[in-house]
Each structure stands twice: as structure tokens, then as C-alpha cells.
Specification:
Blueprint: E1 7-11, H1 16-27, E2 31-36, H2 42-48, E3 52-55, H3 61-75, E4 80-83, H4 103-128, E5 140-145, H5 149-152, H6 158-179, E6 183-190, H7 203-210, H8 222-234, E7 242-245
Parallel strand pairs: 1-2, 1-4, 2-3, 4-5, 5-6, 6-7
Helix pairs in contact: 1-8, 3-4, 4-6
The structure holds nicotinamide-adenine-dinucleotide.
Length: 254
């Protein structure tokens, strides 16, 4: 897909990796809509990128169809749908005090990351199905955000792992579901990245959390996610996979 003249919807685009992706997409000649929480910097980011802000909450599952519909109408189409809205809770299956993981917390993390992503994807694909295909038969690209937590089994991340693992697992199935429509589906699994989500992690903690990387041993930069995201959009052979962007990071159990 060519960025120039394409339209992108960036869910979570007010900050971090999605913002960086929207910025690169805009620099390449694409039109952008930023979807994010009402309380976010979405309006300022959209203005900076010459786009429009659509406040939303991905956990308002019914409301998302309306918001995405408005954004598609405003842009007069959508070829790229990027979603980074998500988050974690730190809790063990059985906590140190002997009590078990809160089921409400587990369900909330599944809702936010997994159900939110699938809902956005199915709504987005419904719109993309109506696009005129390009000369290669492509109608659009959907990109979700997993995490290396999907594969690394970090202690205290059971809900997040379940959600991100499922995002990774559904990527190939969705790519196959949507292949006949010319819609691709991919996911990126980042290691620790320096974004709004991780702003509270002190430097010492970040060093500790990235020390098992091969190289570079540091937090990723949002633009490094964006570089991969844009490559995925541009390269028609990228489909059905979850790509680790992690400096070769692997965790040993501790
Ligand atoms: N930063 C990391 O180290 C890291 C590592 C692996 C995976 N991830 C994943 O990346 C995503 C976070 O992206 P980031 O790191 O750029 O963080 P970020 O906080 O900078 O950006 C995330 C954006 O999502 C928005 N958002 C959060 N909840 C939302 C909701 N319910 N509805 C709408 N928007 C919502 C936030 O307002 C924010 O603007 C999450 O899915 C997270 O699991 C992050």
C-alpha cells in the first residue's frame, strides 16, 4: 500500500507508539484521524498532524462502531487501522498474601486489550471491505499491538499475557478470514518502550527490565515501533504474523 493519498485511523494515537506511527503516516502524505480517550492529548496531536480528533473509549464496545464510522466518513475512507489502546495489571495467580487474582481485574484486562482489539478490527474490516482495491487487490491493513509478554511468561502478568497472547493468536486467523477481501492483519509485539504507559518507570528499573536484550539494551523509542508499522503497511507480503520489536530481549524466569 502507498501512504500518499491513504487514510489512517489511529486508536491510541494521542501518545507513544501510535502517535509516532500517525506522525510517520502523515509525513508520507496520508490523512489521519486520532481516536483516543477524551482526557488525552488527542486534540492537540490531531491539530499538529492536520487531522481530526475523535474522543472514544475502546471499552465502550457498542459506541466504537459509531466513532469509527464518523472518522471513516470524515476521512472519506480508511486503508490503515492501528490500535495501541491497552494496558496491564500486575498480579500473580495467587498473590503473596495467599489471596487469588481478582477475576474482575482479569476480565478488565481481557476487555481492554483483546475484546477492544477484536471489536475495532471487525468494525474496521467492515468499512475496509467497501474500499476500491488497489492494483494489487489490497483494500487495507489492520495492525494490533501485542507485547513480548505474550510469549515471555513474566511473573505477575497473567491477565496481560492471556490478552496479548490471544491478540497474537487471532492475527493469522483474521488474516485468513479477511484474505479474500484483500485486507491484511498484523500485530507488533514490543519489548519495553519509552511511552506514556511506561513514563513512571525509573531509569534504574528500565535498565533492569532491558538488561536481557541482545542489543540495544535500552527501552525502545516510539519511532522504532512506527518504522515497523509503516513497513507493514507498505509491504503486501506482511500478513498474519506478530513481529517482535524487542532488541532480542528474552526473560529468564525469576
Ligand atoms: N510501552 C511499552 O513498554 C509496551 C510494551 C509492550 C506492549 N505495549 C502495548 O502498547 C500499548 C500502549 O501504547 P504505548 O506504550 O504507546 O502507551 P501510551 O500510553 O503512550 O499510548 C497509549 C494510548 O492509548 C490510549 N488509551 C488507553 N486506554 C484507552 C481506552 N480505553 N480507549 C481509548 N484509548 C485508550 C491512551 O490514552 C494513550 O494515548 C498497549 O497496548 C500496551 O499493552 C506497550
Amino acid at each position: 500500500m502507498k501512504i500518499d493519498g491513504s487514510r489512517g485511523i489511529f486508536v491510541g494515537g494521542a501518545s507513544g507508539m501510535c502517535r509516532a506511527t500517525a506522525t510517520r503516516f502523515r509525513a508520507g502524505g496520508g490523512e489521519v484521524a486520532i481516536l483516543d480517550l477524551e482526557t488525552s492529548d488527542g486534540a492537540a496531536v490531531a491539530e499538529e498532524l492536520g487531522g481530526r480528533f475523535f474522543p472514544c473509549n475502546v471499552m465502550d464496545f457498542d459506541g466504537m462502531a459509531g466513532v469509527i464510522g464518523e472518522a471513516v466518513e470524515h476521512l472519506a475512507g480508511m486503508q490503515f487501522l492501528v490500535n495501541t489502546a491497552g494496558g496491564a495489571v500486575a498480579q500473580r495467580t495467587v498473590k503473596r498474601d495467599g489471596s487469588r487474582h481478582s477475576l474482575d481485574d482479569f476480565r478488565r484486562i481481557i476487555d481492554l486489550n483483546l475484546i477492544g482489539s477484536f471489536n475495532i478490527n471487525s468494525i474496521g474490516a467492515e468499512h475496509m471491505a467497501g474500499n476500491e482495491p488497489n492494483e494489487n487487490g489490497e483494500r487495507g491493513v489492520m495492525l494490533n499491538t501485542a507485547s513480548i509478554a505474550a510469549f515471555e511468561g513474566q511473573i505477575g502478568q497473567v491477565a496481560y499475557t492471556a490478552a496479548k497472547g490471544a491478540i497474537a493468536a487471532m492475527t493469522l486467523t483474521m488474516a485468513r478470514d479477511l484474505g479474500s477481501l484483500g485486507i491484511r492483519c498484523m500485530a507488533i509485539a514490543p519489548s519495553l518502550f519509552d511511552t506514556g504507559l511506561t513514563a513512571g518507570i525509573p531509569e534504574e528499573g528500565a535498565l533492569q527490565l532491558t538488561k536481557d536484550a541482545a542489543f540495544p539494551r535500552r527501552m525502545g523509542r516510539p519511532d522504532e515501533f512506527a518504522i515497523m508499522a509503516i513497513s507493514i503497511f507498505e509491504c503486501a507480503m506482511m500478513n498474519g504474523s506478530t513481529i517482535r520489536v524487542d532488541g532480542g530481549q528474552r526473560f529468564a524466569p525469576r
